[in-house]
């Protein structure tokens, strides 16, 4: 629980570093997505960053559910 909260707090305190880490983690998945939307990625780098952040958030949710036990982790309370 505490570890999960630290992760969430880090996301708020250091968004640039967390985004960077998410891009590193999600790189393999991003490669295939980049091929599909190659033109879009070049013109709109925010799309790349957004999906990387979503990957990170999904990872944190899964981690939180491990600590909380089941679906309760997604309630945000």
TrEMBL record:
Identification of the protein by name: Uncharacterized protein
Compositionally biased tracts (Basic and acidic residues): 1-17, 33-65
Region annotation Disordered: where it falls in the sequence: 1-77
């Amino acid at each position: 629980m505490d570890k999960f909260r630290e992760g969430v707090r880090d996301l708020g305190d250091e968004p640039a570093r967390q985004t960077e880490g998410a891009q590193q983690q999600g790189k393999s998945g991003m490669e295939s997505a980049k091929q599909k939307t190659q033109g879009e990625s070049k013109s709109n780098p925010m799309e790349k960053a957004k999906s990387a952040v979503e990957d990170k958030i999904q990872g944190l949710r899964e981690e939180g559910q491990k600590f909380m036990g089941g679906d309760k982790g997604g309630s945000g309370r």
